[in-house]
UniProtKB/TrEMBL annotation:
One Pfam family, short name: GATase_4
Coiled coil: none
Residues in Glutamine amidotransferase type-2 domain copies: 1-286
UniProtKB keywords: Glutamine amidotransferase
UniProt superkingdom: Eukaryota
Protein name, entry field: Glutamine amidotransferase type-2 domain-containing protein
Length: 336
């Protein structure tokens, strides 16, 4: 979940938990992380979500955050172990990064020590568990850390670099690789990637879908429900059909935007957009961003990578804009 403002994220137990081992096969652990300013709260359990006391405890809490990752695990790589439960988290550039993955990555099953990219560097991140997912996460961070040593990458540069690393991962085995992931880097930015997309009739070959709304809502199906609400809004008497809205011309609604990303659509009466194969989207303030123009706008609104100068300097925006043939003057009058 990615939001324009801190939002109550009520995991409706037992509905959500039932999918973790009762009504579905995802019984091999679950995890939840959410950002609190620059900090990160993490909850992981190896027990099935449907029977987990910790999951029941969280269901009684009013969690409020702008960037949330949740994962229910079905073990395809690595044994059932707490160290193998997603989301995985690491510090890089004085920022908290978190990652969860759905699929299979043959490259890291066959060659767990693979170095991604062409720039050599010190291996700073190692997997604690045995999953291909965590190995891929560490490899991506190691490659980014090796490449950017003087200043932070701007969001368009980071977008292109992550996509190139994903292409390298897929190239090893395009037929066997399933690479659906969420990658958060701080309280605002959520990167979402999907390959190769959904295959009808398959329970393994899944893609990723997202929907954007601007009000409190209840969303659910027979075995899964999530309640999300912005403080001050009631979720009683939800009419899900009323949540489709033109966000572009309503600043009040824009301040209340909520984006939900899920493996499969969670509702039948609102628009869910499936990511295209190899598509990488940045979600910020509850909206999707893909083009350099959109990503530079997010940068200029103050939601790029920023560690207050603790490790690297800020991104060289003017230099990067020239590379993409943009200029700051392009955004004058756009509320920046």
């Amino acid at each position: 979940m990615n939001c324009a403002a801190p939002t109550d994220f009520g995991l409706s137990w037992p509905d959500f938990c039932q999918r973790g081992g009762a009504t579905d096969v995802h019984a091999d652990g679950w995890g939840l992380v959410y950002y609190a300013n620059n900090g990160l709260r993490q909850f992981h359990d190896v027990e099935a979500a449907s029977t987990s006391p910790l999951a029941q405890f969280l269901g009684r809490q009013n969690i409020q955050a702008s960037n949330v990752l949740a994962h229910i695990r079905y073990a395809t790589s690595g044994q059932v172990d707490l160290a193998n439960v997603h989301p995985f988290c690491r510090e890089m550039w004085a920022l908290n990064w978190s990652f969860c993955h759905n699929g299979q990555i043959p490259l890291f099953d066959d060659h767990p020590d693979t170095w991604l990219g062409n720039i050599p560097g010190d291996r700073m991140y190692y997997p604690v568990g045995t999953t291909d997912s965590e190995k891929a996460f560490c490899a991506i961070l190691n490659s980014l850390r090796a490449e950017f040593t003087g200043s932070m990458p701007s969001l368009p540069v980071l977008h292109d670099r992550i996509r190139a690393l994903c292409d390298e991962i897929i190239e090893y085995d395009p037929q066997g690789t399933i690479l659906n992931f969420l990658l958060a880097c701080g309280p605002h930015a959520l990167w979402v990637y999907s390959y190769p997309g959904r295959r009808p009739g398959s329970s393994t070959w899944n893609g990723l879908h997202y929907t954007v709304r601007s009000r409190s809502t209840c969303l659910g199906d027979e075995d899964y429900a999530v309640t999300v609400s912005i403080p001050g809004n009631s979720t009683n008497g939800c009419d899900k059909s009323s949540f489709l809205h033109d966000f572009n011309n309503d600043e009040t609604s824009r301040s209340r935007q909520i984006c939900i990303v899920a493996t499969t659509p969670l509702t039948n009466d609102e628009e869910w957009i499936e990511l295209k194969p190899r598509e990488l989207i940045l979600f910020d303030e509850g909206l999707p961003h893909v083009s350099p123009r959109e990503l530079f706008r997010v940068e200029m609104q103050g939601h790029g990578l920023d560690n207050n100068g603790k490790v690297l300097t800020k991104a060289r925006l003017e230099e990067d804009m020239r590379q993409y043939e943009f200029h700051k003057e392009f955004y004058v009058g756009g509320g920046i």
